[in-house]
Amino acid sequence: MLMAAERPDSLIGDEVVRTLGQQAQSSQVLAQVKDGQVTLSGDVPSSEAKHQVEAVVAAIEGVRKVVSHLHVDSGKRSFGAPGEAIRDNPDGRDDAQMGDIDLGKDG
């Protein structure tokens, strides 16, 4: 009996990114793929959006399991309109890695 070849995580990841990019309400969602398991994290504006993101990712070819750590952020606990919460680090940049922090080096 021949088994179908498993779809590589890189291809699954590419499709997850493309699919989430088409979902306006999932701009704050991050996805990690390992062995066909997709782990979602980040913020969505409503429980409906959370379920929609989980469903579209689960339907992607090669996805074996979806682990959701999505958080519903209605905008009440942060600045901005619902689903468009303004983050204190909106570009996700780690200033320590960017060299912007002086750690008191000698010399």
From TrEMBL:
For this protein's source organism, the top of the classification is: Bacteria, Pseudomonadati, Pseudomonadota, Gammaproteobacteria, Lysobacterales
Region of interest called Disordered, as start-end residue ranges on this chain: 73-107
Question: Where are stretches of biased composition, namely Basic and acidic residues?
Answer: 85-107
| Pfam families named among the record's database cross-references | BON
**Domain BON: start-end pairs:** 8-74
Q: What is this protein called in UniProt?
A: BON domain-containing protein
